[in-house]
């Protein structure tokens, strides 16, 4: 397994790698940068760099993990990419259906494909489905998510690059928010974050704030989480008004 530095998961599982950019949030894709580094190192799974690549040899990996894990599925790709065959998606789901000790977090920007595959996939309770939304322009992904058959549904507002003009979180089980990181990161504004947080509170939706991105984006210049010895260290900090918000879905 690949231990993850992504704050809201524990391990990553990549039965596919590579992707193509479809919206503004993809502009400075971290996965593309990482894939390019692995390609240069000669790692076989990244032999095609960031071109979409199926990795059947990785399909059964979760079946060998004995300890229950939170698993981010395809941190380096999008399972519902148009070039991933229906049969391959079904194969991924069959592994998740078998590996019930794990919780699988599937995050996509291509939520419209779920409707087309609805009859082919078994959405066991250990499969969470999320959509990535970077601005109000793509809020329709949330509306489509609400119609999906997954029991646990979540939204990742990351990278948050514009205000979210949306307030109906009925049917949503978890919300993640994060600013963009990296050298070319676009700024996140505090009021955008607070607006989402308030809407989560109104609907009793667990709220997880990942990071401000760059340190200069953090409205609190004294945020202690920018220090490496802080238990929730993030390069740009992760506190809102001196508090850490790292809630998870209620699975009772």
Automatic annotation (TrEMBL):
Q: Name one Pfam family in it.
A: DUF5131
- From the Swiss-Prot or TrEMBL record, give the protein name: DUF5131 family protein
| Organism, scientific name | Mucilaginibacter angelicae
């Amino acid at each position: 397994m690949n231990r993850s530095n992504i704050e809201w998961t524990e391990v990553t599982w990549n039965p596919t790698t590579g992707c193509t950019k479809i919206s503004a949030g993809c502009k400075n894709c971290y996965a593309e940068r990482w894939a390019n580094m692995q390609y240069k190192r000669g790692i076989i799974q990244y032999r095609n760099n960031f071109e979409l690549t199926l990795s059947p040899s990785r399909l059964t990996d979760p079946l060998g993990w004995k300890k229950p894990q939170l698993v981010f599925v395809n941190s380096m790709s999008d399972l519902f990419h148009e070039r991933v065959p229906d049969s391959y998606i079904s194969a991924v789901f069959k592994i998740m259906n078998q590996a019930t000790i794990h919780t699988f977090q599937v995050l996509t920007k291509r939520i419209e494909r779920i409707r087309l595959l609805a009859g082919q996939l078994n959405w066991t309770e250990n499969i969470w489905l999320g959509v990535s939304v970077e601005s109000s322009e793509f809020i329709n992904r949330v509306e489509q998510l609400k119609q999906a058959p997954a029991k646990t549904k979540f939204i990742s507002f990351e990278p948050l690059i514009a205000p979210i003009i949306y307030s109906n979180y009925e049917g949503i089980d978890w919300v993640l928010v994060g600013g963009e990181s990296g050298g070319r990161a676009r700024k996140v504004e505090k009021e955008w974050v607070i607006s989402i947080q308030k809407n989560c509170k109104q609907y009793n939706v667990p709220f997880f704030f990942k990071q401000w991105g760059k340190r200069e984006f953090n409205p609190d210049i004294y945020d202690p989480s920018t220090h490496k010895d802080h238990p929730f260290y993030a390069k740009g900090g992760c506190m809102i008004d001196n508090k850490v918000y790292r809630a998870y879905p209620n699975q009772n």
